[in-house]
Design goal:
Layout: E1 4-7, E2 19-26, E3 29-36, E4 41-48, H1 54-63, E5 74-79, E6 84-88, H2 97-105, E7 111-118, E8 123-130, H3 131-140, E9 145-148, H4 149-163, E10 170-176, E11 180-187, E12 190-198, H5 202-215, E13 224-229, H6 236-241, E14 247-250, E15 258-259, H7 272-275
Length: about 280
């Protein structure tokens, strides 16, 4: 996705202490947004694909001092990584966070394992963040809330699914990034599956999703499959998947919020989970 900067004309005259700053860090680039709670409005969103590693990110933060303003009402940071795993809350002990991460992803010497609680589904998402980046974020944003994209993906998707009175028996949600994507399968009000897959081609995405259909014996004419993240609507993966699955959708913009009119320039599904972060607390 190309770089963009969208902001409401009101933003320049808005007091910083009325704004929530949300930051997303991923291999697809660096993104941030401004949300004003008292008007329930997003006043700006920005995306810089060239800032896609820790060195570039730390340099950017040093140059853009306004993002480190301590007066923001709230700061939320989303770190996007395929290295995440889900644990039921009843089985989770915070003291075991490092152990769980190492069992799943190997030695975490250069990564700091963290845990996010998912209140709606009553799980914990364990993920790792580079130690150097974690140390800097603790220094630059001492009062921040930090999540992994998978935590938002699961908890907000689960919440919206519960409120859908017309939901099918099964729904698959897929959230796509540069070389990996997450999949969640819900059956009525039950979370059956969460997993993250690495992919190299569009065919890999189709293969993994159809594998979920086969494993759980899902009806390809009734099961809904909904996409979010960095995937184009005319992607080969989507075209191929629609040959096998009748209901393939893209997430739309959350109508609970107000937006600067230029938000219509941004595909709603690409920043769907990121912009819904304020509803995940």
């Amino acid at each position: 996705m190309a770089a963009f900067a969208i902001e409401d004309i009101e933003l320049k005259s808005t007091e910083t202490n009325t704004l929530d700053l949300s930051i997303q860090i991923s291999a697809n680039g660096f993104s941030y947004s401004y949300y004003q709670r008292n008007t329930n409005k997003y006043l700006g969103i920005y995306h810089i694909p060239a800032i896609n590693d820790t060195v570039k990110l730390l340099s950017f933060f040093e140059e853009q001092k306004h993002l480190r303003n301590s007066e923001f009402a709230k700061v939320r940071i989303v770190y996007c990584t395929p290295e995440c795993t889900i644990i039921p809350a009843v089985l989770f002990n915070e003291n075991d966070t490092d152990k769980i991460f190492n069992l799943s992803f190997g030695n975490a010497m250069k990564r700091k394992p963290l845990a996010s609680y998912l209140p709606t589904s009553r799980n914990y998402m364990i993920f790792g963040i580079p130690e150097k980046l974690n140390d800097y974020l603790n220094f630059a944003f001492p009062g921040k809330l930090i999540y992994t994209q998978a935590a938002l993906f699961v908890d907000y998707g689960f919440t919206r699914h519960l409120l859908n009175n017309d939901k099918p028996l099964h729904t698959i949600f897929a959230d796509v990034y540069g070389d990996y994507f997450s999949v969640m399968l819900l059956e009525n009000e039950k979370l059956l599956l969460f997993n993250t897959f690495r992919y190299k081609s569009a065919n890999d995405i189709v293969y993994y999703i159809l594998s979920v259909f086969n494993q759980y014996k899902l009806d390809q004419a009734k099961t809904h499959c909904s996409f979010s993240g960095f995937i184009e609507k005319d992607s080969i993966a989507i075209i191929q998947l629609r040959k096998f699955v009748q209901f393939v959708f893209f997430e739309g913009r959350n109508t609970h919020f107000n937006y600067c009119y230029r938000f219509q320039e941004v595909p709603a599904h690409m920043f769907y989970n990121f912009l819904n972060i304020v509803e995940c607390e």
